[in-house]
């Protein structure tokens, strides 16, 4: 069965929902970071969302649209953390019984955050796909409404509102670099920018230890790596999925791989130059910018901080590491 591809009109419709429940996040010019990168760098501060991640946009749009069915059946989903908080927050917002399946090894700060939002948490598997298999079983056994974290168009429509905000604040944008875990952020960047201003380059970034989408984008077929090895929980998908690949095929301008050390350096850079806290995935766009800085000279570049939910002890370790 084919999956519906969201359109720019769908993103505009989602904004009518999102604006009821969320404030716009700032797009700020990062002067010191710009000097280091040799371009005009702007940070889209999705780390300031109520759950510390851009994923909340998709969760609110999905639960709002599906709330009558969700009220009857309850919700279940799988996530490495930020999608989990998004659905848990949205479930609480609309009074929906919610169960979140999370893989073992995700940061305790994310597990605690999901629980604090009132969702039921089940730990299962070692990475996203194993948790999702169990979430599917729960949905089948208990009749819950299953939210697919990656192949659900309603999530994308909500997420895409982030890029509308960027474009309206900075219509002269040249490049956006966006992390790819499941792919909703980068995919909707393609949907929005390639319609509103086709000259905008959309560059994706993946973790070297979780590059299923990278291999799929290169080969044109869905690839599974059978596992992941990265500290970037938000990028820790072991396989690529139909919806994001369908959207980004022919529209994504480039895809960069970064190491965990690259992302740790970017976490430091964001904190020291701009005072912003980012998790590994949230700093991935900045990590990629340092890697391709020669290509960014003189350009207006948007680097979203897609999430801040890093274990405090790990943040302290990175600050003390002496990378920068």
Low-confidence stretches: none
CATH topology of the largest domain: Rossmann fold
Strand content: 5-15%
* Strands in their spatial order, largest beta sheet: 1-2-10-7-8-9
Helix segment tally: 15
CATH architecture of the largest domain: 3-Layer(aba) Sandwich
Helix content: 40-55%
SSE pattern: HEHEHEHEHEHEHHEHEHHEHHHEH
Count of structural domains? 2
Distance between the ends:
49 Å
Number of strands: 10
Structural class: alpha/beta
CATH first level of the largest domain: Alpha Beta
Largest sheet: 6 strands, mixed
Shape: globular
Could you please describe the fold and organization of this structure?
By secondary structure, the protein is of the alpha/beta class. It folds into two domains: 8-53 and 154-320, Rossmann fold (3-Layer(aba) Sandwich), CATH 3.40.50.1100; 56-152, Rossmann fold. Helix content is 48%, strand content 15%. The protein has helices at 8-21, 31-37, 56-73, 82-93, 108-116, 128-142, 153-159, 161-169, 184-196, 212-219, 242-248, 260-274, 284-291, 293-296, 312-320, and strands spanning 27-29, 40-45, 75-78, 98-102, 120-123, 145-147, 175-179, 201-207, 254-258, 300-305. The strands form two sheets. It has a six-stranded mixed sheet with strand order 1-2-10-7-8-9, sandwiched between helices. Strand 7, helix 9 and strand 8 (201-207) form a beta-alpha-beta unit. Helix 3 packs antiparallel against helix 7, helix 7 crosses helix 9 (184-196) and helix 9 runs parallel beside helix 11. The protein is globular.
């Amino acid at each position: 069965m084919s999956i519906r591809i969201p359109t720019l009109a769908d993103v505009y419709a989602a904004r009518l929902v999102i604006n009821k429940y969320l404030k716009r996040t700032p797009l700020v010019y990062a002067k010191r970071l710009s000097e280091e990168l040799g371009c005009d760098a702007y940070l889209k501060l999705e780390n300031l969302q109520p759950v510390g991640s851009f994923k909340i946009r998709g969760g609110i749009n999905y639960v709002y649209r599906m709330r009558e069915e969700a009220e009857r059946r309850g919700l279940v989903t799988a996530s490495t953390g930020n999608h989990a908080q998004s659905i848990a927050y949205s479930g609480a917002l609309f009074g929906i019984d919610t169960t979140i399946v999370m893989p073992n090894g995700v940061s305790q700060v994310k597990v605690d955050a999901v629980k604090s939002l009132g969702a039921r948490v089940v730990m299962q598997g070692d990475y996203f796909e194993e948790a999702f298999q169990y979430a599917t079983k729960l949905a089948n056994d208990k009749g819950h409404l299953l939210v697919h974290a990656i192949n659900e168009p309603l999530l994308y429509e909500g997420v895409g509102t982030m890029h509308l905000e960027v474009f309206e604040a900075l219509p002269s944008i040249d490049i956006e670099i966006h992390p790819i875990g499941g792919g909703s952020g980068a995919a909707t960047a393609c949907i929005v920018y390639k319609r509103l201003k086709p000259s905008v380059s959309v560059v994706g970034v993946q973790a070297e230890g979780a590059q299923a989408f990278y291999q799929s984008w290169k080969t044109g077929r869905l690839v599974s790596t059978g596992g992941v090895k990265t500290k970037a929980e938000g990028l820790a998908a072991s396989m690529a999925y139909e919806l994001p690949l369908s959207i980004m095929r022919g529209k994504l301008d480039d895809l960069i791989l970064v190491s965990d050390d690259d992302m740790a350096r970017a976490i430091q850079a964001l904190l020291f130059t701009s005072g912003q806290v980012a998790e590994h995935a949230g700093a991935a766009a900045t990590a990629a910018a340092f890697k391709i800085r020669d290509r960014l000279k003189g350009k207006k570049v948007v680097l979203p901080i897609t999430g801040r939910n890093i274990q405090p002890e790990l943040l302290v370790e990175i600050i003390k590491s002496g990378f920068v």
